[in-house]
Design goal:
The protein folds into two domains: 32 residues; 215 residues, Protein-Tyrosine Phosphatase, Chain A (Alpha-Beta Complex), CATH 3.90.190. It is built from eight helices and seven strands, in the order H-E-H-E-E-E-E-E-H-E-H-H-H-H-H.
């Protein structure tokens, strides 16, 4: 037998062994995802999480970097893509509560991560529609879309007040996540008298850290926050659109702002 045939045979055996190991690994990941699902909905496993960048960042740290000064607390609010689902919570900052902005009524998958032998399963409040285009003011005129987005915001503010470490995510961690993140940051900044052009630019700076962002989307978060400003303060926007009291926004802001 020639050396080439010996080499090809060895290579085939190696590839077969690697495929077997891959199937065992995939089975193990799937097995870990069984159980601990109170609603009985399917749990999403994103195999991209094995090799893909999570688009994860601590929002406070990111904004402080964009601003060149420390105005926000770290370890309060995190953002990411959905590729973490099925993997360790450490990949996305070990959050205590997860909000899944990309829940799909057609797929009905729950996004989750593993923590200390248990699962942290993402929360959602849009059982009948898919959230989309939250960075456009027109979307807030849609009653069902506005209602679902407001429920997310109200729950997120409650988690902030309770001093929980929060993760917001959608599919890419870009637009839906970016819009609610921008709104929360603007709320906190305005409560401290810091919602000026430099801050709005920092919000856009954080948005542009997403690698999948295309140039056509540049400026979306700046326009979104300025659009809210054209209607009044951020607190007034949350009051008028969502019925969230100014007292609650101020309490939540105090947990995100550095003194």
């Amino acid at each position: 037998m020639s050396k080439i045939k010996v080499f090809l045979k060895a290579l085939a055996l190696l590839l077969s062994a690697l495929c077997m190991l891959l199937f065992i690994f995939m089975g193990w990941v799937k097995y870990r995802s069984l159980g601990s699902n109170p609603e009985g909905l399917p749990l999403a496993i994103r195999w991209e999480g094995f090799y893909h960048d999570m688009n994860h960042r601590d929002v406070g740290a990111s904004l402080n970097q964009c601003l060149g000064k420390r105005l926000f607390r770290e370890e309060v609010l995190h953002r990411s893509a959905g590729w973490f689902s099925g993997w360790s919570c450490e990949k996305v900052g070990s959050p205590e509560v997860i909000y899944s902005l990309n829940y799909s009524p057609s797929l009905k998958e729950r996004y989750f991560c593993h923590v200390e032998g248990d699962k942290n399963i993402g929360r959602y409040f849009n059982p009948d529609l898919q959230l989309n285009d939250l960075e456009f003011m027109e979307s807030w005129e849609h009653p069902a879309m506005r209602g679902a987005a407001c429920r997310f915001l109200d729950e997120i503010l409650s988690s902030m007040i309770a001093e929980k470490k929060i993760l917001l995510h959608c599919d890419a961690g870009r637009d839906r996540t970016g819009a609610l993140t921008a709104l929360l940051v603007a709320m906190a900044a305005q409560a401290k008298g810091e919602l000026h052009d430099e801050m709005i630019n920092a919000i856009e700076c954080d948005y542009r850290k997403t690698e999948s962002l295309v140039p056509e989307k540049y400026g979306r978060m700046q326009r979104f926050i300025k659009g809210i400003g054209n209607r009044g303060s951020v607190a007034e926007f949350l009051q008028n659109q969502c019925g969230i009291s100014e007292e609650k926004t101020l309490r939540a802001a105090s947990q995100f702002n550095l003194n």
